[in-house]
Write a structure and sequence with these properties.
This protein is mainly beta and 124 residues long. The protein is built from one helix and ten strands, in the order ββββββββββα.
Length: 124
C-alpha cells in the first residue's frame, strides 16, 4: 500500500507563517502536513472561490496546538488530539505552534491552491 510522511511528501508550499508538505494519494485525495508558526486569519486568501470561502471538505487531525475554521454563522476550533471533519464553506484560522495532518479531494484542493497562490502573488 502506498504511503507518505512529512519527510517524503513530494510537494511543498511555504507562505508567511505556514509550511505545507503534501502529496496526492491513490483514490483522489491529497494528504497535507501543515506547520503553523504564526497566527493568521486566511479569509483574504480565499477571495475568488465560491462565496469567498474554501469550497472543499477537509478531514484532519491536530498533532499539536490548535486550528480554527470560520463559517458564516459560527467558528469551530480543534485542539491537539482532535480529529475533525470540516464541510465546504469555511475559511481557516491558523494559530502559531499548530501542526496538523489533513486529507482533501485532490481536484478541489488544486483549484483552491490556484486561487490562493494568485491572491498571495505567487505564480501570478
Amino acid at each position: 500500500m502506498p504511503h507518505v510522511s512529512r519527510s517524503t511528501a513530494a510537494e511543498s508550499v511555504s507562505l508567511d507563517g505556514l509550511d505545507v508538505k503534501f502529496e496526492a494519494l491513490d483514490g483522489g485525495y491529497t494528504v497535507c502536513f501543515e506547520s503553523h508558526s504564526a497566527d493568521a486569519d486566511l479569509a483574504t486568501m480565499f477571495r475568488g472561490l465560491p462565496d469567498d470561502r474554501c469550497h472543499f471538505p477537509r478531514w484532519g487531525y491536530v498533532v499539536s496546538g490548535k486550528v480554527g475554521f470560520r463559517f458564516p454563522d459560527h467558528e469551530e476550533t480543534y485542539a491537539a488530539g482532535d480529529a475533525y471533519y470540516v464541510p465546504p464553506g469555511h475559511t481557516p484560522v491558523h494559530y502559531a505552534g499548530a501542526e496538523i495532518v489533513e486529507f482533501s479531494p485532490t481536484d478541489l484542493l488544486g483549484e483552491a491552491m490556484g486561487v490562493v497562490m494568485r491572491n498571495v502573488g505567487v505564480g501570478a
